[in-house]
Amino acid sequence: MDTTSVIFTVLVALIAIGSVIFILTSRNRTAGEKLSGSRNSTTTVAMQLQAYERLVILVDRIALPHLIARVNQPGATAREMQLLLTQNVRSEFEYNITQQIYVTSEAWTAVKNLKEQNLLIINQLANVLPLHATGLDLNKLLLEFLMSDKKGTLHEVVSEVLSYEAKKLME
Q: Could you tell me the pTM of the whole model?
């Protein structure tokens, strides 16, 4: 048998196997579609719950106290720390942006508002510091602001909203 015959035989076998797999999977899909939608709704709820879980983790990761503890760079200037903090918030948010298709628009808006508020707080407080300020100065100012202003606890409110909506799905 020459090389061309072997290639032809293998190609025919692959096409035959592919056709059988296609027929079997399309039959299973058709049979599954005839069943009640319980499997689809169970899968959908599971995906939604996973999205809420990921968003709760996102909220925790961009909460300013946790962000400061995680991103802190000893010896950084206030400007460098500002960039690290804002880049981290944006990166975390962008990584989870697809979760919006699985949650309510209210939940997604709450997460977006938290991101925007945190960026605003970081930038505004960094801008009031003198040019020679350190990253430690910025972190200290941010934490003082969070302790004195109720807006600083928005991450807790957003987490509660996400948890509440996830619990409603499980009812």
A: 0.74
